[in-house]
Amino acid sequence: MRQILLFISLLILPFVSFSQEIKGNVVDDQGNPLIGVTIHASQSDKYTTTDFDGNFALEAKQGEDVVFTFIGFETLTMKAAQNMQAVLKESVTQLEDVVMIGYGTAKKRDLTGSIVSIKGEEVADKPNNNVLNSLQGKVAGLQVVNSGQPGSEPDVRIRGTISLYQTKPLYVVDGIFTDNIDFINPSDIASLEVLKDPSSLSVFGARGANGVILVTTKRAKTGETLINYNTSVGFKSITGQPDMANASQFKTLYEMQRENQGIAPYSYYNLYAADTDWVDTIANDNALFYNHNISFSNSTENNKIYAGFGYSNEEGLVKNELYKKFTANLNDELTLKKNLKLGLNLNFLDARLPRLGNFTSAINSTPIVAPYNNALGVYNQLPTEMGGAQLGNPLLEVEGKNGTQLNRDTRFVANVYAELKFLEHFTLRGAYLADLDYNKGRGYTPVFNVYAAESDDLTAYGSNLLTKVNQYSNYKQNLQQDYTLSYKNTFGKHNVTLLAGHTRYEEYFSAMSGTVSQYAPNYNADGVDTNQIPNDPRWWYLNVFPYGDPTTRLSNSSQWDRATLSYLGRVLYNYDGKYMVNASLRRDDSSEIRKAQNFWAVGAAWEISKENFFKNDYVSYLKIKGSIGEQGNQFTSLHYPTYPLYVSGQSAVFGENLVPANILAYRVNPNLKWETVFSKEIGFEATAFNNKLSLEVNYYDKTTDGLLAYITTSTDEFYGNVGEVKNNGFEFVASWKNEVNDKFNYSISGNLTTMNNKVVSLYDDGFDYFSNPTRTIAGQPISSFYGYIVEGVYQTEADVLLSPTSNVGNYGVGDLKFKDVNGDGIITADDRTYIGNPTPDFTYGFSANLNYNNWSLGLDFQGVYGNEVYRNWGNGSTYAQFNYRTARLNAWNGPGTSNWEPQVNDASGYNSMASTYMVEDGSYLRLRNVQLAYNFNASFLDKLSIKSLKMFLNAQNMVTWRNNSGFTPEFGGSPTQFGVDNGSYPIPVITTVGLNVTF
């Protein structure tokens, strides 16, 4: 019997193939090992990935197809064998990459516009709680103005300022429209796409004009089970501290000022012997920053699930500022059948928001006062004549009021979808999306006694005798429904993708707030007010009993809702991979505007390098492209601008009754529509010298037609489409990468964007929007600084007599000399003119990456050029005596002593009027980021059962080369007032160490 079984086995053996462990190596066409290549044994349905040396081991059958895939490289199929050597060819400038576009995906090569894709790993290990901070200087046409305050949102603009009301782009997170992405953990991001051109934006209709940033969160990779943990910890420090007078310098300048004003010397210096640097006093030295992130991902044939959790703790540069943030991300995709998928995306945020401080009062407070009176155990009050009423005590504000405001933000952003493929080429997708944001807070205003040295007694701080409680809650709910049908097919050399869709977007907002004060003070025998509300969070509610005085309770509420119903369509077509056409159309019907509007775009491209006549040894890829289209901007200063509310009008008397009248707040304009931005782009993309050089150049032109504005005249008030704003410029992007040898490679890249902004028209000639110190009017850039041109300082009485007379204030020898712009021989308000432009001539960024063996070094620089900033501090005031900039030590003090710094005399306020004296150069160059990293060898990690391990040292904002006098040269703001330095908040230097490990 055994012989028979042996004979049968020998007969069957040639027809049976046993799975075994296949080993091999994967490199690129330069011989460099590729890390993270996905390898799939198609028959055995087994997966693996390559390690840091490009090695892999895969369970497969001899001779079966093994598929190698890696982003940026062409897919390769080989027969399974021992000691496989796979060489992947790089896709030309990653043109085969699939990028996110509105309501779908596409190969970058097939698009006619300028979509920039940023991989999640480029921003994951940077010390920023908001991923937008990490994009600064990375993308041509994208201007990011950061703030150093923890939890703050940067000012983001794409290709200029196009409106009076809204500049920020639309953010789309896993399909849902939102107005910020604070809730996203950078470690959970798979990619970001920045959409700038009309062919990619018009599908977003009335919300596409300011550009769009698409965020895609991570999904599980096919055939992998991974656990990733990354963490970083570091410190923040202040840089760029303004030069302010010390105690001795302050006394010198203050006495000079009193002498110039004809006032006797200050008589209380004997009471103030300190030399206080208030910035150092309230600064949080070595503010701590750390975060921890862990993710789990698993993929089977029918289910892919990814879960990520993050916690960050960020101290501010002002004492007692602390921002805590917990995030969670869940992505699950279930394949019920081969052609049916169900999915869920969920993001969660729980943030504890700090009681934010600033350094404005610190740079203004006199240095001669000690912050605290140790003998009495109370804080000192600033002298009455030196800002005591206006500035308070900066240290008391950050220490005495520590923990008196408790704010919390909770947010859920979810997306449930189903996707059905049928008839081979059709895909039907339905999605229900929701963004629920609940923000609440409550706080306490304590009562303090401070020591007033001038009167030698204790007095109530800020003259406040009553403790108070405040409480608020804001709730915003965004609901979205998307239904799309797509068709994708290839007919010979024709390739077409069609999309049709219907979407509905609803927004609901409600807010309530209130305050309550204690009963009138009731002091006991020990001088304690027994009616004070306790300084304990348990009592910080509006109905606090028995302390709150109901007669002082004030409350307020606001609410609004709106909805948009839209239909959309898009065509992506290419012929033979050489000739491309993209077209899109969207119709938006809004509850806020009476008429529906259509938005459209058409783009075309020609990949010349595929033509036979173009073949050469230098340029491997060249595509010229262009697109035109219209996008909308659905924002005004209030909701439902075509449906004005009623306000009180003139009353009328009927008999003995006084009857109030109600009238419309402004005239109805039934023809009002959302702003329409007509935009154009033309450019080219190229690679050369064996793909070492990549180059892209674009010219863009955006014209806001029907600028939406609120018009107020002597006889009329209404909303109208009454103006035009133009933005245009060039974008240049270039990179060079080279493999020197098998151990060393490097890459260099850079981008530069020119910006030209102009208000072409605005209602009638001379109509303007004035927001001191800015003015928006036809013929000038939006939000230009407006004031007097300083020609020098009056040196003598003869100089005054020989100069035009001024009727804008009291002035004399030693004061600023304003230019007679209109030449009428008198300095009047009509001589104010444009004295600065906050929009830069160009923005730029460049970076270098060096890799040697397992070491890598990355350097990022970022800057702007040609803009001005307005210094709104340190200029003197008619209302309070603040500290002086040290530059005032060079003030005019006699003929010939200075022709720029006026005399120290702020009594009339003449020298503090808006002028070029306050305008400073806003150009700067910053070493944005430096990172040194080490990736451990796979042979070492195998012993520890670790797939990858990276350790890094990161330094951010190390050096800034600039010319202005404030903490920082960058300032955001509103569309009609930005670039104004109000004392600001420093952009910190952040130094962190961290690791990233995958199991």
TrEMBL record:
InterPro entries cross-referenced by the UniProt entry: Beta-barrel_TonB_sf, CarboxyPept-like_regulatory, Plug_dom, Plug_dom_sf, TonB-dep_OMP_SusC/RagA, TonB-dep_OMP_SusC/RagA_CS, TonB-dep_rcpt-like
NCBIfam families the UniProt entry points to: OMP_RagA_SusC, SusC_RagA_signa
TonB-dependent receptor plug domain ranges (all copies): 107-212
Topology versus the membrane: Multi-pass membrane protein
Subcellular location: Cell outer membrane
Keywords: Cell outer membrane, Membrane, Transmembrane, Transmembrane beta strand, Transport
Entry similarity comment: Belongs to the TonB-dependent receptor family.
Record GO cellular component, one term: cell outer membrane
Source domain of life: Bacteria
SUPFAM superfamilies, sorted: Carboxypeptidase regulatory domain-like, Porins
Record protein name field: TonB-linked outer membrane protein, SusC/RagA family
Matches recorded under Pfam families: CarbopepD_reg_2, Plug
